[in-house]
Amino acid sequence: MIIPLAHRANQTQEYYFSVKLAEVRRLQAAGHDVINMGIGNPDLMPSPNTLDALTTSARQPSAHGYQPYKGTPALRQGIARFYNHTYGVTLDAETEILPLIGSKEGITHLSLTFLNDGDGVLVPELGYPAYRAVSQMVGARVLEYPLLEHDGWQPDWNAMTDLLAESPASNPTRIIWLNYPHMPTGAPATRALFERAVRFAHDHRVLLCHDNPYSLILNKKPPISLLSVDGANEVAVELNSLSKSHNMAGWRIGWMAGAKAYVDAVLTIKSNVDSGQFRPLMDAAAEALTNPDDWHHDRNAIYQDRLEAVHAFLDTLGCTYATDQEGLFIWAKLPNSVESAETLVDDLLYKQHVFIAPGFIFGPKGNRYIRISLCMPKERIWEAVNRLKLAN
Ligand SMILES: Cc1ncc(COP(=O)(O)O)c(C=O)c1O
Prior knowledge:
By secondary structure, the protein is an alpha/beta fold. It has 14 helices and 13 strands.
């Protein structure tokens, strides 16, 4: 290529899964039966009424044109009702909800809206890689706040305050990313944690961006939204998504919820980047949001059933893990006998044709960990266990 890349393209690496899944597809094309337990891509179906709504809507002549930049009123009202029913949070459907093309997109839009070149952004290490990658792309200064096993993967708020003190007055820290139930460690959300986070955001005048896609997956207690905490409205926004909770990852339906001023500011940026979503997707998403509690319960029963096989897989590897994790994954520590997560993951992929995620893709503190997804039928996970046992 004779045209030089922009600095941001040179400093950004292709997403790990984008590279590794191409490798998985190459092995599959060569005839290998790869069991993919790496990625959180639900294999279960959306509810039947969701699919009916999609096809009914697609047959409407009015469904195929541009749609409102801030989504249809029906979708926003559906999200508002879902927030009320699920979390006891009242949102104004007209002003406090912004549908997104998946919540991942919201990370970029929030960053573009609130971060100037050189501003600080607090990012969890360990955490979802997009927080860091996008912060760097927009020229922000990444301040990693460590999450450690012996702290139950909870932030150390005093250490966080010290990190803020390093920021020059001209480039303060403006955003803190938070995500509980936490990916990849499965640490649950608690009201005490959210209250502490909101106090921190008020004390330091940073925007608390909470990413909440896993609240309904294997949750042991009623799900919580950060927006249910007193005072959150002034300093916090929440991203949420149908990808995991409604088995709709490929549909790319997420949203941001928060005070009107935050929603308006993000919409100003976003309306210059994309032009809304396909109407049938929004109509069907509104329908999905009416799935009864039993539907969620049944989905969780399937994941719960798969856990036994995942635990057997980890036991065979000699890993240790917490049994109270929430979300779509199990996070496990490698035994000392394993040299590194990278060699283990590659050995499993190329010898046993089983793909799992190495912990280091979520930050260096994940070096001695692996993450197993529950998005595989239990028979396939048991098949992976058998392959391991045969190889031992
Ligand atoms: C913590 C976290 N946030 C956001 C996302 C992205 O979700 P979406 O499909 O809504 O973009 C993921 C997906 O894996 C995730 O794990």
